[in-house]
Design a protein that fits this description.
The chain is of the alpha/beta class and about 300 residues long. It has eleven helices and ten strands. The chain is about 40% helix and about 15% strand.
């Protein structure tokens, strides 16, 4: 149960970190556009070209449907469109770098020509290289095994990088021993993110975002335990703001809790992420999340 008293206790326990909510984050600069996520959070809409992705509503089955969905997401309020060709679920079919590039680059080229800011989700340097050459200007980096190569590619193309916290080489190869439930899920992230931010900047990357990885397929046995773990990460996002870059969350969804109303789940979890000071929301349900963020901005409970 989430109660006001629980939030007050959390704030008291992390009073020094909570002060980071009042410290401004530098605007995110992407392809000549500036996004001040403290003034208005940015929304990243998802297009999955992987047929076995778990969120069926974001899956497209052809290039034509991918373009249509991307254009609809932009019309619904997405600032960025995130394209991926492989599910992050470890049990799903693997898609090698060449096939990822073949699926994604024609779409990236066409959307970029229309002025859409495209993010490529991958941990494969060859796929990212092809995507950047086609016009992607955000790398949603779902791995850490090839950081140097990825940072060099992003710097060469003036691209932003979303650094995902990955417990293993990449999202398809997570370390199960490190992915158990924790009452303090962000404790080990600050040092790792700080090191990677320094490495990226040293290699010329100027636009960075951190993603605690709430959406990845870590296994906690009990799916409700997984959702509780994710909720803690969302509410405690403010602890990462001391890094000075926006915090991104791939907003969770939970069939276990929401059942036939699961498409409303991302809106609910957006509220928790907002309380934590999240700046970028990666979502399958763009219009719902945009509406929730607008409502939160309009309300004043002081």
């Amino acid at each position: 149960m989430i109660r006001l008293a629980d939030l007050a206790r959390l704030a008291a326990e992390h009073a020094d970190d909570l002060a980071a909510l009042d410290r401004p984050i530098a605007p995110l600069e992407v392809a000549g556009r500036s996004f001040d996520t403290d003034v208005r959070p940015a929304v990243m809409g998802v297009v999955n070209l992987s047929r076995d992705s778990t969120y069926r509503e974001s899956v497209v089955t052809s290039s034509e449907s991918a373009l249509r969905r991307a254009r609809v997401l932009v019309a619904q309020g997405a600032d960025f469109v995130d394209l991926g060709a492989e599910s992050s679920d470890a049990t799903s079919v693997r898609v090698d770098a060449a096939e990822q590039a073949a699926r994604l680059t024609p779409l990236i080229r066409e959307l970029a020509a229309e002025g859409v800011l495209v993010s490529i989700e991958s941990y494969e340097p060859a796929a990212v290289r092809a995507g950047l050459e086609a016009g992607a200007r955000i790398v949603n980096l779902t791995g850490s095994a090839h950081d140097a190569a990825m940072f060099d590619l992003a710097a060469a193309h003036g691209a932003a990088v979303v650094l995902c916290h990955v417990l293993g080489p990449h999202a398809r190869d997570l370390d199960p021993a490190a992915a158990g439930p924790s009452s303090d899920p962000l404790a080990g992230m600050l040092d790792g993110f700080a090191r990677r931010i320094d490495d990226a900047r040293a290699r010329g990357v100027t636009a960075l975002v951190v993603d605690p990885g709430a959406g990845f397929g870590f296994s906690l046995g009990d799916q409700r335990a997984r959702v509780r773990h994710q909720a803690r990460m969302l509410v405690q996002s403010f602890r990462l703001r001391s890094l000075g870059v926006p915090v991104c969350h791939s907003v969770p969804h939970s069939f276990e809790l929401f059942e036939e109303q699961f498409r409303t789940a991302e809106g609910f979890f957006t509220v928790l992420a907002h309380l934590g000071g999240t700046g970028v929301y990666r979502t399958h349900e763009v219009p719902h999340v945009v509406a929730v963020l607008g409502a939160l901005d309009a309300l004043d409970v002081d």
